[in-house]
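Figure 6 in text form: structure in, sequence out.
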């Protein structure tokens, strides 16, 4: 009888451990897959007006456009949504400036602003043009154009002698340091 109680207790403990491991794994997967999970979420669009061409699959939204898809939030004056095979293939936004935000694979915010933002959901790419800025993990990048790969978390920036952003600007935050014993003691 004692061995039966022990086996039941061990079995319950193993089931609890398996359940805890499953919960942790799902939590990590949801954060790590945040970028790719967005494309499987519905897109909601709010605007002052809209028009669609069923033949070309192009929809235009005008005035105070707000788009949400998972962790993606886009605000712009005008947005054109292009479809390929009944799926959104390209979102082209313009504004003064347009803005884009999303959580990356580790749950950190990606914040972008530019005169024109091109979002390619299936490729997880954003292309920023005209006075572009991108903030990610404390680093701020400014240039005339910035391309950011959300999956690989890589970027490329360019300047344009014709625009107001003549050179690339990069601001890298200092490393987080631990306070010394003197700072802790108030000396």
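Output sequence:
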């Amino acid at each position: 009888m004692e061995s039966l109680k022990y086996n039941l207790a061990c079995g319950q403990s193993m089931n609890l451990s398996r359940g805890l491991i499953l919960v942790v794994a799902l939590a990590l997967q949801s954060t790590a897959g945040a970028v790719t999970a967005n494309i499987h979420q519905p897109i909601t669009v709010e605007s002052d007006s809209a028009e669609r061409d069923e033949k070309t699959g192009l929809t235009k939204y005008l005035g105070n456009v707000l788009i949400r898809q998972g962790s993606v939030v886009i605000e712009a004056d005008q947005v054109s949504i292009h479809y390929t095979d009944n799926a959104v293939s390209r979102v082209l936004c313009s504004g003064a400036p347009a803005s884009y935000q999303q959580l990356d694979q580790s749950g950190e915010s990606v914040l972008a602003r530019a005169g024109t933002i091109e979002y390619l959901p299936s490729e997880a790419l954003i292309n920023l043009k005209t006075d572009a800025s991108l903030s990610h993990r404390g680093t701020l990048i400014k240039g005339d154009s910035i391309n950011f790969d959300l999956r690989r978390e890589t970027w490329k920036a360019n300047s344009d002698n014709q625009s107001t952003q003549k050179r690339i600007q990069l601001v890298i935050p200092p490393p987080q340091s631990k306070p010394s014993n003197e700072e802790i003691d108030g000396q």
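Caption detail: The CA atoms of residues 89 and 145 lie 21 Å apart.
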